[in-house]
Amino acid sequence: MRAPRSGAGGPGRPVDVDALPGEPVLSVRNLTTVFATRAGEFTAVDDVSFDVWPGECLGIVGESGSGKSVAALSILGLVDYPGGVAAGEIRFRGEDLRRLRPEALRALRGSRLAVVFQDPQTALNPLFTVGRQMTDFVRAHRRASTREATRLATEKLRLVGVSAPEQRLRAYPWELSGGLRQRVAIAMALLLDPELIIADEPTTALDVSIQAQIVELLVDLKQRLGFSLIFISHDLGVVSAVADRVLVMYAGRAVERGPVGETFAHPLHPYTAALVASAPTLESVRGRPLPTIPGSLPGPSDRPAGCVFAPRCPRAQPICWAEQPPLAPVLPGREAACHFPLLPDAPATTGTARG
Amino acid sequence: MRRFFLRRLAQNLLMLAFIVLAVFVIMRLTAGDPARIKAPIFASEDVLDRYRAEFGTDTPLPAQLVSFLSGIVRGDFGESFRYQEPVFSLIAQRLPQTAMLALSALLLAVGVALLLGVAGARRPDGWLDRLGQAIAAFGQSAPTFWIGLMLVLVFSLGLGWFPAVGFNGPQSLVLPAIAIALAVLPADLRVIRTAMIDGLAQEYIRTARAFGIPEWRITYVYALRNAALPLVTVVGIDLGYLLGGTIVAEVVFNYPGIGQLAIDAVNARDYPLVQAITIVTAAIFVFVNLGIDLLYMVLDPRIRIEA
Q1: Looking at the domain assignment, is residue A260 inside a domain?
Q2: Per the domain annotation, does A76 fall within a domain?
Q3: Where are the alpha helices (DSSP H) in B152-270?
Q4: Chain B interface includes A109 (CB < 8 A)
Q5: DSSP string spanning A72-130?
Q6: Where exactly are the structural domains of chain B?
Q7: Residue from A287, A291, A288, A289 nearest A270 by CA
Q8: Is residue A78 less than 8 Å (CB to CB) from chain B?
Q9: At A336, phi and psi to the nearest 5?
Q10: What is the pLDDT of residue B304?
Q11: Burial class of residue A256 (count of CB atoms within 10 Å of its CB; 0-12, 13-18, 19+)
């Protein structure tokens, strides 16, 4: 179902994490984000680690409630009360964002670290024109006259393919169509040429035809501008079209990590396999029900002591209930948190998806 | 937008006309003869008739109404029975005093409500929030006249900081303004607090944070803008209340405003003065609300489209 990729990741790009040259843009270690609820503490993100390398797109997938959005908000330091990052390290270009003073973190957000939210209808302020919002964002970081800021906003709108940008700047967000709004939101993220953009389900609120346009736009922009991208989605098709590598989350934990093509073609973790199997494709047979994953995401109080997926896993053994498997290398460049990973019969035939 | 405005203007003028009629009728239905009140106690019927002739209350009601209405059209509201002065100049003397008092009270109430409401919304159940809730509960449960008396007891008779009665400079505004402000503060505070909590929870606030907008700007520009509509609404209601609410405070503090004048006028069955005061206050109320409707459209661009 994946369109052939014309090198969004670049041909011949090494897929093994350890083999990549240079330093990661973002390095998250043992991130744990906890919400205080009436019923006690709820761990939304549980000991998750990942890296994002320069020019790379990391996809984070998982069903609703898996903690992927909270992980993104944790990086930005935007987890709302009563939640908060309880442990871990979030290194952006070597600096631990958790140790940064609030003012320094604020200065970083929107300039070097930008975000595109899910629903541009609610994420954009209905009381201000597009131009006012964009110039406000510029001027939160730079001394710039209204004219300079407007010029920059016009330039970025043009970059994301918005026609008649001067006119759009005078419009209110609710006067624009959904696709146009999301382009505006992407232009906002690009305003100050960020090194990393976090896109939190940027296509989920859009029509399918618009989704494809936005995905194409992001891939194209990433290639031309060279920023790194964290792309969060529950839509495997969209993720496989954008991401170089993918992190699969389940119930707050990272269960699998690897190059996107191989991971979806030959999942190691039973959860990833179930997720891939339950994704509708054009080949899905009408009238025949899609496979679903039996059971549901464990609630805060009934997380098992062992593997979080054990209650729904067809391969679960007694050890899965007792002992939590760590995310560990299974194949070169590929990691899974599973006592009994699904090893492919012929690993040599995989790994060609990257063209 | 212009059609909307003209329609509202026409509606409001019609309403004013009804108020004018109603006050004319009600005054004449009220027991008490202005001539009897004005004349010495044991005045003969002859003397009373002379007064009636002077006041014009000896003619039949329709004739009185015609002369009243034709006066309004000419901008002449007549002469006060009691003060024997044109009512217009009486009102012109007192209205600025009341306007000053009402505006001081409004500024005080809205100012305090903004400070405490924003603080309470930013940190619900924090000490500023609790302080606000306590003041709101007090202001809502204690009547203005009692608060006025207590303020006089403590701050003028006890501490001697402010004059107890009358008007001799800005210091005379302080106690009555506090007494009135406490009456309107609770509603203001609750509306602002709720609107700010709602405003701060909007997703576009999170966007603003994610784009590095400073926190003070997020609170006082972005979220407060969202709270502007309810705030303007409640200020409109306040103004309506203040037009009547100042009367109580003016009486307690013997403050020379239009409220005092109105009470005297009613007691004297001073028809022209009561009618004029009613028309003036009603006109103020109506036009303030018209102004608020217009302000809505300025504040929320979405209303402009619908109008």
Answers
A1: yes
A2: yes
A3: 171-200, 203-210, 215-217, 224-252, 258-267
A4: yes
A5: HHHHHT-PPTTEEEEEEEEEETTEEGGGS-HHHHHHHBTTTEEEE-S-HHHHS-TTS-H
A6: 95-257+276-306
A7: A291
A8: yes
A9: -145, 150
A10: 66
A11: buried
**Interchain contact, A117 vs B209, CB within 8 Å:** no
- Whether A314 maps to a domain, the answer reads yes
* Nearest CB neighbour to A140, from listed B212, B301, B302: B212
Residue A107 touches partner B, C-beta closer than 8 Å:
yes
**Amino acid letter, residue A15:** V
- The pTM assigned to this predicted structure is 0.76
Inter-CA distances, B86 with B21, B89, B114, B213, B273, Å:
21, 6, 42, 59, 9
State how many domains chain A has: 1
Q: Is A81 on the interface with B (CB under 8 A)?
A: no
Return the CATH fold of B95-257+276-306. Answer: MetI-like fold (1.10.3720)
* A8: confidence class by pLDDT, cuts 50, 70, 90: very low
Q: Which helix (H) or strand (E) holds A48?
A: strand A40-52
B 197-226: CB under 8 A from A: 202-204, 206-215, 217, 222, 225-226
Nearest by CB to residue B214, choosing from A78, A106, A117, is: A106
More confident site: B51 or B186: B186
Domain limits for position A85: 23-54+62-104+244-279+292-343
Does position A158 have pLDDT exceeding 80, yes or no?
yes
pLDDT digits (tens, 9 = 90+) for B185-243: 898 899 989 988 888 888 899 999 999 999 889 988 888 888 888 888 888 888 878 87
Does the beta-carbon distance from B203 to A114 stay under 8 Å? no
A204-225 residue pLDDT tens: 888 888 888 889 999 999 999 9
Q: Which has more pLDDT, A350 or B186?
A: B186
- CATH code for the domain in which residue A256 is found: 3.40.50.300
Say whether B208 and A172 touch across the interface (CB within 8 A): no
